[in-house]
Structure of Glutaredoxin domain-containing protein:
Amino acid sequence: MVRGWVLPLLIVVAGVAAAAGLHADRNDGGAVVVLLAFVAFAAVNSPLIFPKPAGALEAQRRSEEDGRPVVYWRPGCHYYRRLRFRLGRDARRAHWVDIWRDPAGAAVVRSFAEGNETVPTVVLTDGRGYVNPDPEWVRERL
């Protein structure tokens, strides 16, 4: 869980430093805008906005029951964020596994990504896995 907060924390620290520099130059309005922008960017990269992850075994069980795909991800991944935001509300229709929290999920990803932990990896109910698929392709399978 702690690893998921490192990037957002660093973003906030950078925002505070940038805002402090603008405040020192007596640009309080700019400091507020910069700080808010950095805080918003940190929120986008935080575990708060990601779907609640399930364990790999639980996600696979649910996928078999309802036919929805399983998406393996990790916080801070640019490609994962692209997929998540392009899916929008449809993202709720998939099962999400955070590979940093679940070693079994990381093993599933390595099995499809030639030993690498490349995310997002989407596994369909038929057992086929796709590494970093196009978001529109994933939307069609939801």
User: Anything to note?
Assistant: The chain has two domains: 2-44, 56-141. The chain is about 55% helix and 10% strand.
